[in-house]
Amino acid sequence: MEVLPFTHTDLDALQELQPAGWDNITPAFNFYLGSNFCFPVKIVVNGKVIGTGVSIIHDDVAWLAHIIVHADYRNKGIGKHITQYLIDRIPVKCKTIYLIATDLGEPVYKKLGFVTETDYAFYKDGSFGTDITLSSNILPFKEEYLNQLLAIDKEASGENREMHLKEYLQGSFVLIENNKVKAYYLPEFGNGLIIGIDTVAGIELMKLRSKKYYYFILPADNKAATDCLIKHNYVHFRTAKRMILGTNRPWQPMNMYNRISGQIG
Questions:
Q1: Structural domain tally of the chain?
Q2: Is the pTM of this model over 0.90?
Q3: What averages of pLDDT result for each successive group of 10 residues across the chain (265 residues)?
Q4: DSSP states along the chain
Q5: Are residues 217 and 131 part of one domain?
Q6: What is the CATH number of the domain that holds 23?
Q7: Residues 37 and 154 in one domain
Q8: 88 and 132, same structural domain?
């Protein structure tokens, strides 16, 4: 068994690794291969790619993602081997490592010292109505809002995600009250990120997001948002665990009205 860098020539192998119920994993690996802060690897047995894993470095925080083992090779310790390999190569400056765990992966990560920080709840197939009236305070993003947007994102996430956010500001929205950013929405970033420091503002942007997406994924800690989804007939269909290894960092899950994705938070 070898662990080697994942390359563009390995993309076709992802078809056999695609987990049931997951979104297509190929776009994510294209993203990894095109970045300078993502480090995807493959696990090879007898010339065949039978597993993958990725480390993603955000300044002094790391995320692990797409730790996948081919169904024919599970229960052989390969998932644990991949995870430990990635951990061992995280830069020393990263004192905190995060990942999102499925039910299948959680026991593996617990053995390596990860603990559950919170649950992410998945909802789908509801509706805010066919004729949604949106707040007039929702405005297209302008550069003058950038510093406020970055500040509320750092408060919510506990991370410096500026390098990611700046790539997706075109076509994004903010909700402004008294010249202050209360919430923002990046439609094209992952699953459509929404961060807000005000409940009403966050829910207004959820309404806007519902025009593009049929589902929401957010921390169960955001009770106001989950209650709103239930009220509008969204159905809870899955839970995933956000797990952490290393130093705890302050973050505000109740300020997250939709996450980015499983590999970036």
A1: 2
A2: yes
A3: 96 95 91 93 96 93 96 94 97 96 94 97 94 94 97 95 91 97 96 97 98 97 98 96 96 97 78
A4: -EEEE--GGGGGGHHHH--TTSPPSHHHHHHHHT-SSEEEEEEEETTEEEEEEEEEEETTEEEEEEEEE-GGG-SSSHHHHHHHHHHHTS-TT--EEEEEE-TTTHHHHHHTT-EEEEEEEEEES--S-SSPPPPTTEEE--GGGHHHHHHHHHHHHSS--HHHHGGG-TT-EEEEETTEEEEEEETTSTTTEEEESSHHHHHHHHHHHTTT-SEEEEETT-HHHHHHHHHTT-EEEEEEEEEEEES-----GGGEEE---TTT-
A5: yes
A6: 3.40.630.30
A7: no
A8: no
